Amino acid sequence: MILDLFAGSGGWSQALTELGVRDVGLEWDEWACKTRAAAGQLTIRTDVAAYPLWPFLGKTTGLLASPPCQAWSMAGKRLGLLDQPLVHQAVADLAQGLDTREKLLAACRDERSLLAAEPMRYLHALNQHGQPEWVAMEEVPDVLPLWRQYAAILRTWGYSVWTGVLNAADYGVPQTRRRAILLASRTRTAEPPPPTHAKLAEPDSLFGPGRARWMSMAEALGWGATDRPVPTVCAGGGPGGGPEPFPSGARKTLSDARERGTWTPHPPINPAVTVADGRAEKAVHTEHPTAQAIPTAWRWTLRNNNQANATVRTIDEPAGTLFFGHRANECVWQAEPVNPTPPGTGSAPDPIRITAAEAGILQTFPADYPWQGNKGQIFSQVGNAVPPRLAAHLLAPHLGVSLSPDDFTLAA
């Protein structure tokens, strides 16, 4: 089996599905488990730190782990950085079969910090049976020193290991999400997959195939046609029920802006872009107004939070890193003037909060992925997930699968 620790809503699992295999996920969150069940993914709802190891011994070929990142993420208080010496100590102890977690946990400033040491508990037990054959782990960039500690231990057990930080946009994800990655293998040289995309398109050469331009938000969402769909109202709870975490009526159409003649879609990125069967449009929008070709005064951008250092990107670029939790209300589409702004163009259209379906697509989940829970719960699942498209590129070599840029569809 392939064992997926902290499986979440199924980022690794969706990638494996695309590659023709399945995993068994261990996950605690109720709504993430319901999403996984709706997606047909095998799941054990449990605390990864408390689950016994014996069911997996002698049966596990691959181990996946994406420990919760809240203790380390820039979106939180980052107490995990203060707890880092304790986490390193836990990893060192667990690698020798010593369980000092209870004592170390009592000293942690954030109880979630020590979860980053849990994969070593599983790895130590599995190693006694010459398993797993391969390992893939993912976290926020600040966890890289911890992955290097894991790597040093795994090498003494006969693994080839690579650690580093990868940009998801380099693998066709419409988001410049940087993540610390560990790849290890008993049977092949561990190395990062070759990037398929670049900030600027690169043509084929004598040294190998070229790379496509980074996937833009417009392309991923199917907004590449001349008459591009406009972000519109998407009120009400998600498929699992519950209220939308925004004030009633906060999402409004842009018809008032079009009537004033002050808005036009950004020029098309690729007129050939289409949305398979229209499913992405149905998932993302409740109606599909189009804009006329009028003089441009405003262009749409996505702002990933309301802090001063927020990442703001135009729709013909990848999004910045999407993270939600208590910041779900802050990720908005907003209009920015095109310089110089023509006189008499009126005020900018109101900001529009991103929908959970849009966020899921920008994380490279299928447009019809069966998210469960209210919108706040879905946003949390999306923000915590490994982008399936990045995960597929990381896992394909371990599974002996060749993956081309065209093998993974976004809006499908």
UniProtKB/TrEMBL annotation:
Entry keyword set: Methyltransferase, Restriction system, S-adenosyl-L-methionine, Transferase
Protein name in UniProt: DNA (cytosine-5-)-methyltransferase
Location of the active site: C69
GO MF term (any one): methyltransferase activity
The keyword Secreted is assigned to this record: no
EC class name: transferase
Family the UniProt entry places it in: Belongs to the class I-like SAM-binding methyltransferase superfamily. C5-methyltransferase family.
Phylogenetic classification of the source organism: Bacteria, Bacillati, Actinomycetota, Actinomycetes, Kitasatosporales
Domain of life of the native organism: Bacteria
GO biological process annotation, one example: methylation
Entry EC no(s): 2.1.1.37
